[in-house]
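Example 3.2
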Amino acid sequence: MANLKTPAFPEELKKRILFTLMMIAVYRVGVAVPTPGVDSAAVMGFFQAQSGGIFGLFNTFTGGALERFSVFALGIMPYISASIIFQLLQSAIPYLEALKKEGEQGRKKITQYTRYSTVLLALVQGFGLASWLANSSHNGLPLVSVPFFGPIPFMILTVATLTAGACFIMWVGEQITEKGVGNGASLIIFASIVSGAPAGAVNMIKQVMAGDLSSALALIVLLVILAVIAAVVFLETGQRRIPVQYSQRGMGKQAMQQQSSHLPLKINFANVIPPIFASSLLMFPATMSQFVKAPWMQELSQNFTPTGSLYNVIFGALVIFFCFFYTELVFNPTEVADNLKKQGGFVPGVRAGTNTSNYIKKVLDRLTITGAIYLTLICILPTIAMSKLSLPFFVGGTSLIIIVGVALDTSQQIQSHLLTAKYDSLMKGVKVKSRRVRY
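Structure, written as tokens:
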């Protein structure tokens, strides 16, 4: 008799959640560790003055590590940028495309190349940040308090420290993905953004009590945030279900039976990947523009902010591109159509094979267009609205959609683990007897 007693919370899932929380805690502790030789007060004063620009967005994605200039100041962005590069190259370089088709071994090889690229990008970005830091000051105070550590210059030590910090975050993200719950890189960004929420809420309450911020404006901000969250939850869980029927051969009058099912297609297949990829790509040139004093670069820097028209046009184009690119990467209509044909399945009114593939692709393209427009509007409009309200703190649509999207994805993975544990408990103790043919 089957054992129907199901564990309330599987031990394996408990270990995974605890491991994930432990890794995130390790990351947050590292955010508070300052880079040697940096005047923390002067650096924090500078970044607080730049909180509304690209530095504010970058600082949000690093969980405050940039304004403290901690060992994790580069955050997870070098790893994400390297991942973007190799996902794009897989479609352009035959060698990488062949590795992708090799399965697990090919994936490991591409992951190894991605790690090497992460180190290279961290070195470049670390050198840029260290160079700017060594030549900058705030209110007459230099940002670097100790130019030499014995025979080692500040530049070399800082580049090595920031690169090591970026590599450690990459390792933490991979460990969470492998041994924890959810996508490690996305959860690190999630933890970074959420870490600033309590301080922002306290700051808003203080400003309302002091009269610097009206109660009506604070209410409008909360309503906008709730509306964005509701829209993201509704659209992220939305599906377009394509009806599918399966034929089964029987005996006698029931010579042919049909079972109905459906093929679920999400409105947004790419989830939070497009805004994360687009933000990481735009942060690199935007950050570099802060370090070059040429007039054309300074003019570009003024327009290249989260509330600037140039930034939002490029950001929207990148979000739309990555929506289509990532959907093509993870969903192959031809393969789905072939699998349906092999299993005796068909879409009512559509011929099996190529016609089914074209039909699925047509539906998927329409959904992707809808998802891309929704992502672009959600990421851009709240940011512009907040800037028009002249708020003294930064609340971005990109941050909100990442928080909600990652939370939904992680909760779905937890539900998947719970269903697996429930199935295993139901099957535990069941003895399957083979039916022997007697001659």
